Amino acid sequence: MPIPNVTVPEGLSISVLRPTEIGMLVETWGLDAKEPRRRWERGDRCYLCTLDGQPVCYGWTQRSGKHSIDAAGRRRVVPPGEAWVYDVYTSEKARGLGIAPGALARMFRDAHNDGVATVWVYTTDDNKASQRAQLRAGLKPAYDLAALVIGPLVIPLGSERPTGIL
Question: Among 3, 30, 48, 145, which one is least packed by beta carbons within 10 Å?
């Protein structure tokens, strides 16, 4: 797994949060504390980016259990040697500065150092900011997933289709 070389803004710090630091996520982004606790109990890692000491981005990696891709109506078992990056969020004031690509690169580097061979990252068709961040981090599309969404109902359509760019 090649690790991207991403230029990040001066003053950016990326760290792995400890469960005792859950208050930072809850206070900064107004999250319900139950979900981060559930993720930590499963063994997921939360990465926090600060710019000049101010929290500006977070993201998660999952290396075990079942991973839900809600927008596509799918769940995947995370086998040994694989990881999923999910729920990456950058504050509006910090978008476009290269923070999310830097966070992704750090997540890939940590996974690689821990012996993970494959890291999966995904986004929805309408999330152009995430798509740009992933491209800036050196990623290329590998699969398309389709689903029919009717209100709260998500119905997976067809099978996973390789895009031809691997």
Answer: 30
